[in-house]
Write a structure and sequence with these properties.
The protein is built from 17 helices and no strands. By secondary structure, it is mainly α.
């Protein structure tokens, strides 16, 4: 095919594309005459991205803290993008499922190893000063992370283990929400009172969370796994990939986060040892207290009993 024939073929395909959406091809082509060639900085929106860091103090290492968390949120967005591809695929097949699951695990592995940026990359004295300006904000308030949880497993597996006996398939979304494991970080179950941290988080995101909880009841990662042929559900490599994702998100990543917090808040000997949001952070964060397990059916009784215990 010569250049002329190739150009004609491409133009026919372009014409078919715009006919399919009831648009005039000649108008679209004329628009190309006036469009600017794309540049890296326009495509990536570099200027906008690099102007999103707004410090609350004059301490240089606060910028490390801000940018690190912004990078985390971008990675969370990438994870959600992959999760949604799994959830929205009408007929899921093992190859597609495995590929997207591997991508998600790689993103969380990157998040896990990147904690050294914070653990070893900030001056303790500076951190203990600028963190006081963050109160009552907390990483607990990452909405995208909660969306990842709702998208990964059945709601019962996100329920505070102390209350699983009162939650069942007939429970309302409100009941499910009020007994999620992370409610323990800001709620007094005896009085029902919630901390300011939790109140503001729910005011901002609760409606979105309830929509996600409902939508992903039948299409979270676990449910999509159960839609695969039985033979594939028993495939050792796929089961290993599911377990790896579960362990990476709910133990490895969480423990790295916890160790980083301990270094600055406890081992430094500075400050009160309290989290900026006021939560009982060591119990809230430790996996043996959280007991959050996305795919409990893929773990042995012994593994479930010792979940999050130091090896």
């Amino acid at each position: 095919m010569n250049i002329s024939e190739q150009s004609e073929s491409i133009l026919k395909e372009i014409d078919l594309k715009y006919q399919a959406i009831n648009q005039k091809t000649e108008v679209q082509l004329e628009g190309l005459l006036w469009s600017k060639p794309i540049t890296y900085w326009d495509y990536i929106q570099t200027d906008a991205l690099l102007n999103l860091q707004v410090q609350r103090t004059t301490l240089p290492d606060e910028n490390v803290f801000i940018m690190y968390h912004q990078v985390n949120e971008l990675i969370f967005k990438m994870i959600l993008w992959e999760v949604e591809q799994i959830a929205d695929k009408e007929t899921i097949d093992t190859a597609f499922f495995s590929d997207r699951l591997s991508r998600i695990s790689r993103y969380f592995e990157m998040l896990t190893t990147s904690f050294d940026v914070m653990k070893d990359g900030m001056d303790v004295d500076q951190y203990m000063k600028f963190r006081n300006t963050l109160t009552p904000a907390s990483g607990f308030q990452s909405a995208q992370y909660r969306l990842i949880e709702f998208s990964s497993t059945d709601l019962i597996n996100l329920t505070d283990h102390r209350y699983k006996s009162v939650i069942n398939s007939d429970s309302s979304l409100e009941d499910n929400f009020e007994h999620l494991y992370w409610q323990a970080a800001g709620k007094d179950y005896k009085t029902g009172n919630k901390s300011y941290l939790l109140q503001q988080f729910e005011k901002k995101y609760k409606a979105q969370f309830l929509v996600r909880m409902q939508a992903y009841k039948s299409k979270n990662i676990w449910q999509k796994f159960k839609q695969l042929p039985t033979e594939d559900q028993n495939n050792p490599q796929l089961v290993s990939a599911m377990r790896h994702y579960d362990y990476t998100v709910n133990i490895t990543w969480v423990m790295q986060h916890l160790k980083t917090a301990i270094k600055y808040i406890v081992e430094s000997g500075q400050g009160s040892g309290e989290a900026t949001g006021g939560s009982d952070w060591q119990k809230y964060m430790h996996p043996k207290y959280q007991r959050r397990i996305f795919f409990p059916e893929l773990w042995s009784a012994e593994e479930l009993a010792t979940w999050g215990h130091e090896k």
